[in-house]
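Two proteins, back to back. First:
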Amino acid sequence: MKNNKGLTIIELLIAVVIIGIAFYALIKVFIVLAPRDVDARSLSVGTHLINRRIEEVTMKSFSNVSSESAAAFPAPFNAYTGQIIVDYVTTADVNSVSASPTPYKRVKARVWGTKLPTIEGVTLVVTYEVR
């Protein structure tokens, strides 16, 4: 009786080829998906910068809250650019821009960078001043 406990060279080669094809398919998937992945650190820094800008703007008096053009953040965040967009909105719908002044201003803070697509934070500033 023969002892058949081992693998033949042909069985071993077939196994190596199958594993090689599987690894090639996995690597190809990662190569395609990797550029689409947002860097978690960049997203965290961008979110921090949006919150910081919104806090700075909302600390101003209502009459001083206004749009700001796009500008780079100071170091160490100089890889990121931010912008503030302020619009008067209607009292009935805070998503509808008003042509005339109202007691509500919608503040949009936008941040983008080399590894970060544009992200946006929105808040509402209200005045109780009598006009």
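And the second protein:
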Amino acid sequence: MKELAEQFDAPPNGASRGQHDPAARDAQNTSREIERLLSSSEPRLGRFLAQMVGNRALAEDLLQDTFYEAFRLRDQLAGI
């Protein structure tokens, strides 16, 4: 999950963000919050999906897709 957060928070074209950049700090904080939320819900959601589809491998794929979409749309999560 952390790798996914780092991928989305990386500045374009390999540019580096300064430590004092407020946007970089906000993005990093948001990534940490999302990571905590997803990590805390992973076991329960994983079990639910496994029971729902009856296939653990498929459930893991669905869980990954769900987390990817949640992270991709993280700016909209507060309103959901």
